[in-house]
TrEMBL record:
The species this protein was found in: Ananas comosus (Pineapple)
Any one of the GO BP annotations: RNA modification
Protein name: Pentatricopeptide repeat-containing protein
PROSITE patterns found in the cross-reference section: PPR
Coiled-coil region(s): none
Superkingdom per UniProt: Eukaryota
Single GO term (MF): RNA binding
Keyword annotations from UniProtKB, A to Z: Repeat, Transit peptide
UniProt-listed NCBIfam families: PPR (TIGR00756)
PPR repeat start-end pairs: 75-109, 176-206, 207-242, 270-304, 371-405
Length: 586
DNA sequence: CAAGGAGCAG
């Protein structure tokens, strides 16, 4: 038991306590005062503490940096430790930064340094830095070290230079399992399963890593999940990771039954196994099952992490299940699941799609860090809830804060403008999109522009947008022009749209229904009958419209023409009321 | 006086 400290502990005592990684978080908390004074009095204490922090899982890079800054004259070991932490936590730039700092201070590192640095290069910095490091490795005589050499292979392979990796691999006098595995992973990453399989067959011995690389490759890279399964069944010794990988192979191609079967027969599971399945159900249109599974996971005593939490939130979003979403939000807060940008963004999206603008805004306002996705979700959410002005406000806030934007930001703003009829504002932003923000409009943006103009009756301009856009117009573009023609009664452009849709092979029943409605509206009955006949001979049928909503935890489904819902009368009364009030506000 | 390279969820 760690006693709560009234007196200050000596650095030596603290260090002996820090030997057990599991208790470190508590020690950091309880003995914060002692640690501060130890940092002050014992010059080597910070270095030891830094190492202790690096052993934590999850590590806190921010805390590690604070500790690092307390080290008076960091040696190679301390630099290695801070570089390792950052490389491991996915901060490659930071890792390289400390590598550079080390060099600046006249320390050149040892053969322990390079594998960390190479990992950082491999993950995102590109192999140009890798090539530089390679030169450095040779210069310092570390090129005989297998750890370093394997690090180089993986760095090259992860940057698409698998040829360079292979050259290194072939030149090895000695290889170990990791050399083989790194090379095979390189081929799999590149999508060359044949070469990967060849190497795999040539291997003198294999471990679960080797098998998993191939299973994962067949399952996700090439979608040959049956081949992956054959390998899986042949494996002599299976570990947790390869089970998860196999399950993920099934979920990523939508074979949820097989995934579930495998999941049920697992000897042990971790939070990743649950997350894979939860997310799989959420991604493949079975959010109810995803939520059930999430509950099962809690029941079974597995603590959810950020990933599984996001999966469950997404499932709520898809079902429009506000109550369950709110409960989840509350639960995550209570259990102190880390709230990062991704989780919070998922919550905003959920609240928006459930129509709860206030709760969404609460989360948004409480965030100290926001990603592009966060802003986008906010803008899209406000727009689709009919608050175009508010969406524009968020966009302008983004501008003021110089937050990075992407194409989805603009798509969101344009759509928001369309829904609220803010034509001039939308046009202005479309103009500035390329000139000021340097973002090239895609087909979707032109589509939004056509919608924006079309819905307010500026059909000629909408048609000109389609005519002048730099890429080939898609069927969706003609479709929205057609829809606009229906609202604003323009037979000529409607016929043109249908003609173009037919050329693109996108003339489904809905298209002809629209056209015949337009004819009917203009009293052109001959044309109406012509279209109806055309539809009948073409074997087309109107698709049935349906929607679903959650109330008090129950999901209600509505199908066009179906009157089996117990509250049908009341529902229609409300609808009548709503349409009356819409008419009166116009 | 401690440490490194390869595989699974977003």
């Amino acid at each position: 038991m760690i006693s709560s400290s009234s007196s200050t502990l000596l650095p030596k005592t603290l260090l002996s306590l820090l030997k057990k990684p599991k208790t470190i978080p508590r020690i950091l908390q309880i003995h914060a005062v002692s640690i501060t004074s130890a940092l002050f009095f014992d010059p080597s204490f910070a270095a030891r503490l830094l190492f202790a922090v690096s052993e934590l899982s999850p590590t806190s890079p921010a805390y590690a940096e604070t500790v690092f800054s307390q080290i008076p004259r960091p040696d190679t070991f301390s630099y290695n430790t801070i570089i390792r932490i950052h490389a491991h936590c996915g901060n490659p730039l930071k890792a390289i930064h400390f590598f550079a700092l080390m060099r600046k201070n006249g320390i050149f590192g040892d053969n322990y340094t390079y594998p960390f640095v190479l990992k950082a290069c491999g993950s995102m910095l590109g192999c140009k830095v890798g090539v530089l490091i390679h030169g450095e490795v040779i210069k310092r005589g570390f090129d005989e070290d297998l750890f370093v050499r394997n690090g180089l292979i993986s760095c090259y392979c992860k940057n698409g230079e698998y040829g360079l990796g292979r050259k290194l691999f072939d030149g090895f006098v000695a290889r170990d399992l990791v050399s083989w595995n790194s090379m095979i992973a390189g081929y799999v990453d590149y999508g060359d399963m044949e070469e990967a399989q060849n190497l795999f067959d040539e291997m003198p011995e294999r471990d679960p890593y080797s098998w998993t690389i191939l299973i994962d490759g067949y399952g996700k890279k090439v979608g040959d999940v049956d081949r992956a399964r054959k390998l899986f069944d042949k494996m002599p010794k299976r570990d947790l990771v390869c089970w998860n990988s196999m399950i993920d192979g099934y979920t990523s191609c939508g074979k949820m039954d097989q995934a579930r079967e495998l999941f049920e027969s697992m000897p042990e599971r971790n939070v990743i196994s649950w997350s894979i399945l939860i997310d799989g159900y959420a991604q493949h249109g079975n959010p109810k099952e995803a939520l059930d599974l999430f509950q099962q996971m809690l029941h079974q005593g597995t603590k959810p992490d950020k990933v599984s939490a996001v999966g469950a939130i997404t499932a709520c979003t898809q079902m429009g299940a506000l109550d369950q979403g709110r409960w989840l939000h509350f639960y995550l807060k209570k259990k102190k699941i880390l709230f990062d940008v991704v989780v919070q963004t998922a919550l905003i999206d959920m609240y928006m799609k459930c129509g709860s603008l206030d709760l969404a805004s609460d989360v948004f306002d409480s965030m100290c860090e926001r990603s592009v996705v966060t802003w986008n979700v906010m803008i899209v959410g406000l727009g689709s809830n009919g608050c175009g002005r508010l969406a524009l406000e968020i966009f302008h806030k983004m501008e003021r804060e110089r937050a990075p934007m992407d194409d989805l930001t603009f798509l969101g703003v344009l759509t928001a403008c369309t829904h609220t009829g803010l034509v001039s504002e939308g046009l202005e932003i479309f103009e500035r999109m390329k000139s000021e923000f340097g973002i090239e409009p895609k087909v979707e943006h032109y589509g939004a522009l056509v919608d924006l103009l079309g819905r307010t009756g500026r059909l000629r301009e909408a048609r000109n947008v389609i005519g002048k856009m730099p890429m080939k117009p898609t069927s969706a573009l003609w479709g929205s022009l057609l829809a606009a023609c229906r609202t604003h009664k323009c037979v000529e452009l409607a016929e043109l749209s249908v003609e173009q849709l037919a050329k693109l092979g996108a003339d489904d029943s809905g298209v002809y229904v629209l056209l015949s409605n337009i004819y009917a509206g203009e009293g052109m009955w001959d044309d109406v009958w012509r279209i109806r006949k055309l539809m009948k001979t073409g074997g087309m049928r109107k698709e049935i419209g349906r929607s679903a909503v959650e109330v008090d935890g129950t999901v209600h489904e509505f199908i066009y023409g179906d009157s089996s819902h117990p509250f049908m009368q009341e529902i229609y009364a409300v609808l009548q009321d709503l349409s009356n009030s819409v008419v009166s506000t116009r």
